[in-house]
Amino acid sequence: MKYLLGEKLNFDWKVAVVTIVSTLLLMVDHYRTITIYKYWDRVILYLVIPLLIILVFYRENPKEYGLSFGDWKLGLTYTVLGILFMAPVIYYLGRGNAVMRVYYADYLPGLPWTTFLDLIGWEFFFRGWILFSYARRFGHDALWIHAVPFALAHVGKPEVETLSTIFGGFAFGWVAWRTRSFVWPFLIHWFIATFVILVAAGAL
């Protein structure tokens, strides 16, 4: 009987929860709508639901999952450096890119608050809940592990953007890891997303 059943499985239940629920939330985001605005859907799916899981099921402080300013001096330094580094890269790759121009043509109205709402939950989801949940079990390997669903969630966006996301996800995760906060990668990502749209749509 033991040969047929194999070894006893011993799961970390929080790893199982974050893996299953995060995957389902990404799928729901793709196939369903909750409100008339996608960015409000993402606040609910990627911020509210993970916070409820942390508070109600984990019974833990959200600060343990990056919901704080953490090391704010280091975070502010990384944010400024990230913006200074990414701005010319985005301008070079995005300006005159026909694929990106078509994709982002309808994203201009409502900036920068549409990208703020779209990404505040997105970043807590990846750089808070998923990253720090995995970090407890997998340590530094969580930086690469959490970057995989982040990259796959970009499939369908312009190729040049999508191909960079496995590395971008790692970099955002590293900033969150070093600062113990999702806030700073969120601010960098918010700038990047807003600037990409402005450049690609020809507003700059």
Summarize the structure in words.
This protein is globular. The relative contact order is 0.16. It is built from ten helices and no strands. It is mostly helical and 204 residues long. The chain has one domain (12-200). Helix 2 (13-31) runs antiparallel to helix 6.
List the defining traits of the structure above:
single chain; 204 residues; mainly alpha; 0% strand; globular
Q: Layout of SSEs?
A:
Elements: H1 2-5, H2 13-31, H3 38-58, H4 72-94, H5 98-104, H6 113-138, H7 142-152, H8 159-163, H9 165-179, H10 183-200
Helix pairs in contact: 2-3, 2-6, 3-6, 4-9, 4-10, 6-7, 6-9, 6-10, 7-9, 9-10
Helix content, binned percent:
over 70%
Q: How many angstroms does the end-to-end distance come to?
A: 68 Å
What's the number of extended β-strand segments?
A: 0
* N-to-C SSE string, H for helix and E for strand: HHHHHHHHHH
What is the count of structural domains?
A: 1
**Global Rg:** 18 Å
The low-confidence runs, each spanning 5 or more residues with pLDDT under 50, are none
Structural class: mainly alpha
- Count of runs of 4 or more consecutive helical residues: 10
Form type = globular
Binned strand content: under 5%
Mean pLDDT: 92
Oligomer: single chain
